[in-house]
Amino acid sequence: MITIQNVKYMSDFEAKKAIIDIGKRMYIKGFVAANDGNISCKVGPNTIWATPTGVSKGFMTPDMLVKIDLTNGKVIMGNRKPSSELKMHLRVYEENPEVMAVTHAHPMVATSFAIAGISLDRAVLPEAVVQLGSVPIAHYATPGTQEVPDSIAPYCKTHNGVLLANHGALSWGKDVFEAFYRLESIEYYATILMYIGRIIGQANELSCNQVDDLINIRQKLGISSGGIPPCTLNATNTQDVVSSVPSPKPEVQLAGVTPLVRPGKASEGQDIGCGCTGRVIQPPTAAADTGKTKEEIICEVVKRVTEQISSGNK
Ligand SMILES: [Zn+2]
Predict the structure, then answer these.
(1) Residues in domain Class II aldolase/adducin N-terminal (predicted)?
(2) In angstroms, what is the span from residue 303 Cα to ligand 1's centroid?
(3) pLDDT value at position 269?
(4) For a Cys staple, 187 with which of 107, 139, 266, 293, CB 3.0–4.6 Å?
């Protein structure tokens, strides 16, 4: 480690070794396919080491990495080109000077949530709440364009990672290991959410304009084969998704009447009995939704199950 202006940074050697090590883990865990993903690590107030474009993260050697000047994004050491996704990394460092490393990959479950437009913000796992917090989805942006860094900018100071709509996951931390552990936690948390019932079953498909932009990029890369997939007319991934938890139904307020506060129920910003303030989400009661009593619903369920069993026995 080296200290510059009272801030500790990894040395060039340590940073390159760590990036290669994390790249192998990323590849072995199946977070990336082919040459996907990228990793960067700060080694001074204005310098980072980063992965180049066009190499598998599982098979990198120190000579492949590039040293970048954060002030202008130019390569100052190394003879390869940086990834076009480096713009995202530069933006995280710019928005949050405390960040020392950034990792990006396309882990399967988290990316599926990013495609479905479902943010990771269910309070179901203490580790996830403490170490990760909620993980919003930044709205869709064409990979490689300036829109991508713009889409993640609002979250760089307030969150530890973000899903990129129809793309993947991005995380950051005080060193390259913390950034990668957060990426691992994002995928772990997404997998738990999937197992507990969010078997996804929905997807925001790319719009025809978004597909057109990608076909243009493909042509510029000299790729003339591959066909064009069907697309939707209107883009459905243009909004950020900060919370996928359904809001409780609004209560009718009568003018001039003080609202009733029920036991166990707090309004926005009120102490909810744990010394904290926040939104309390009441589970919807079936009886309230259907207008039937609990006993009537149980009778109905027993009746239907009995009917199904007897029809299955015929
Ligand atoms: Zn990517």
Answers:
(1) 17-194
(2) 51
(3) 43
(4) 107
Instruction: Check whether 312 has a pLDDT greater than 70.
Output: no
Side-chain-side CA neighbours of residue 8 (13 Å): 4
Distance CA 137, CA 161 (A): 9
> What separation in angstroms does the CA of 235 have from each of 1, 59, 139, 165?
47, 37, 11, 12
Span from the CA of 82 to the centroid of ligand 1 (angstroms) = 13
Domain count for the chain, please give it.
2
**Cα 5 to middle of ligand 1, angstroms:** 33
Ligand 1 centroid to Cα of residue 1, in Å, is 30
Any domain includes 243 = no
Q: What is the ipTM of this complex?
A: 0.99
| Mean pLDDT, residues 85-113 | 96
Q: Could you report the per-residue pLDDT of 209-232, keeping only the tens digit for each? A: 888 888 888 788 887 666 677 788
Q: Is residue 256 included in any domain, yes or no?
A: no
Token pair of 171 as six digits = 């995380």
138 domain-assigned: yes
43 inside domain: yes
Residues 163 and 267 in one domain: no
pLDDT tens digits along 32-50? 999 999 999 999 999 999 9
Please tell me the distance from the alpha carbon of residue 68 to that of residue 215, in angstroms, as a whole number: 29
Please give the residue range of the domain that contains residue 67.
2-220
